[in-house]
Amino acid sequence: MSFDVDIHGNVGATEIRCRIEPVDGLTVLFGPSGAGKTSVLNMIAGLIDPGAGHIRVAGRTLFDESWDPWDFNSMPPERRRAGYVFQDSRLFPHMKVVANLRYAAPDRPLDLAPIAFLGIDHLLDRWPRSLSGGEARRVAIGRALLSDPAFLLLDEPLSSLDAPRREEITRAIEHLRDVVRLPILMVTHDAAEAERLGTRIVAMGD
Ligand SMILES: Nc1ncnc2c1ncn2[C@@H]1O[C@H](COP(=O)(O)OP(=O)(O)OP(=O)(O)O)[C@@H](O)[C@H]1O
């Protein structure tokens, strides 16, 4: 079971409505700029309040308007186990790549499998400021995976990359979808990307 979402709320003056039927694999949220795609990811991560509806992911309820709001109708973000890869990577600038990767589990041995398939082994001793956009994106995906997430939220993971870098990250996402089999919700406004990666495409803002 994957993302089962039906939410209706407001972000500033914008009304956000989104319905995602559960399907295994990768769900693409597709739509024009300003449609509310990032806001939906933030609601699923627990960073903003969805207002009304429900959010269930991989069989766990993260938000349900019918829960008593005085007694919390929302699971706190740190318990949701979201692996969130932000559009702008947001690596910790004062930590080397290896420390960014270990951030969520500093006492656990470093899991080398994601580091190998993301091709970031040679970057471990580098500072984030010295990385290219594609390298930083791959490290951000690695940091999310090493937090032992129950699901992944990817916000425009292929934007502003050159063609070879896009292909590398596309293959990494295909690996996560087909081999690791994590539930993935990915935002894009690129139709070809949506077609290639999406098991299901959910349009927003039409
Ligand atoms: N914190 C906020 N306060 C007020 N309005 C906001 C806030 N965050 C987002 N919005 C507005 O909500 C709308 C949806 O924004 P959101 O970033 O979710 O869209 P998006 O589909 O992800 O766009 P893009 O593809 O450009 O990233 C926009 O009109 C935006 O200006």
Automatic annotation (TrEMBL):
Key words of the record: ATP-binding, Nucleotide-binding
Chain segments annotated as coiled-coil in the UniProt record: none
Residue ranges annotated for the ABC transporter domain, each copy included: 2-206
Signal peptide: none
Record keyword Repeat present: no
Organism: Sphingomonas qilianensis
Domain of life: Bacteria
Any GO molecular function: ATP binding
Name by which UniProt lists this protein: ATP-binding cassette domain-containing protein
